[in-house]
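Course assignment 3, question 2. Fill in each field.
Student: A.L.
Task: Predict the tertiary structure for the chain below.
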Amino acid sequence: MRMLPLLKGARNAKLFTLSSALFLFLIFLSSCEEIGPNIDLGGPGREAGLIDTTYVLTTVEAPQTKKVLLEDFTGVRCKNCPLGAAQAASILNTYPGRIVIVAQHSRFLAEPYPGNPDLRAPESQELETYLAPVLGKPSAAIDRRIFSGETAILQPNINKWANLASQAIAATTPVNLTIQNTWDATNRNLKVTVTLHYTGTETGDNRLSIMILEDNVESHQVQPNDEIDTNYVQRHVMRTMLTNFNGELLTAERAPGRVFIKEYLLENIDASWDADELEVVAIVSRSAGSFEVLQVDKADVR
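Answer field:
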């Protein structure tokens, strides 16, 4: 607002005083303006125009077989991490089709070697902090559970991973999960459609997380003998997420027959990422008093 110039005379002085008071009053109003709630759209992949719907069906699907998430917190400068990767691969071979591995390259011991791809992702570090404490690398979060006899989610003893995975495999799931990907090779755009169908009741908070993985990424990796393998193949590397690191909150009541359909979009995917090696991982987990993964699945981008 343009201030009036100060003029001589009582009448002009009054005008000036009133204008000044009005100006200050408007500033006061603006400083006290009510701020609306911070609406969480779920992450960078949630955009206007994408499907985001929920409804209830009278016919409830048969429950899917439970799959298990194994998140391996690792790093290229961690000499014992190849042993963790080998253990994860062994568990995958023991339970084919039942294990989803995600390699989380959080900051510790993960600085890339010169000329190498940077495998670190901000969400990996956020997840490490979220699931803390971290006692070293490699450490695995298996279904983000604290198992009987353990005190933490992240398990640095790789010799325990197989037993914990066998316990997780025995669990059931209250939610069915399917993923459909649409890949635009011209623009390198990826649309992900995830459908959840609840077959049981969940009373606590549930969240949906969407990750993009790249498999078979070649980089330098220090080995247990302190030598550097310059042609090491990194598996299941978490590149980015289409939700916030801790997922998107599922707000409707979750009872048998409840369906959620959500679309996410990632545009102009980094040209250095091999589309033939990209995978989408979807995770449904708890987030109130427990971070336990209820169901997980993955699907190739193309």
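Instructor remarks: The helical segments are 10-31, 81-94, 122-130, 161-169. The radius of gyration is 25 Å.
Grade: pending
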